[in-house]
From TrEMBL:
Record-linked SUPFAM superfamilies: ARM repeat
Lyase as UniProt keyword: no
Family: Belongs to the CAND family.
Listed name of the protein: TATA-binding protein interacting (TIP20) domain-containing protein
Domain spans labelled TATA-binding protein interacting (TIP20): 7-57
InterPro entries per record: ARM-like, ARM-type_fold, CAND1/CAND2, TATA-bd_TIP120
Gene Ontology biological-process entries: SCF complex assembly
Any Pfam family matching the protein: TIP120
Keywords in alphabetical order: Repeat, Ubl conjugation pathway
Amino acid sequence: MPAENGALDLQVKAGSVKQEFEKQDELKRSAMRAVAALLTIPEVEKSPAMAEFSSQIRSSPEMASLFESIQKDSASLPTSESMDMS
C-alpha cells in the first residue's frame, strides 16, 4: 500500500460548490466503511499493508474520528444473520 492515503488525502478546491465537499466527505466515509469491513476478517492485522494503513488512519485526528464514527454506526446495524429475510 502506498504511503499516502490517496482519496483520503484529496482536498476539495477552495472555489468548489457544496456538492463537491459532500462528495469528498462521502468518499471518505465509504473508504472508512470498507476498512472497517476488512478489519472484521480474522487475522487481518497480520497484513503489513493493513497495519500500515490502520496506523495512518489513527495518526490523523480527522480520519481517526471518522473511522470511530463509522465503527459505531456499523456496530449498531443489524447483521445479515439477524435480519429477517422472509
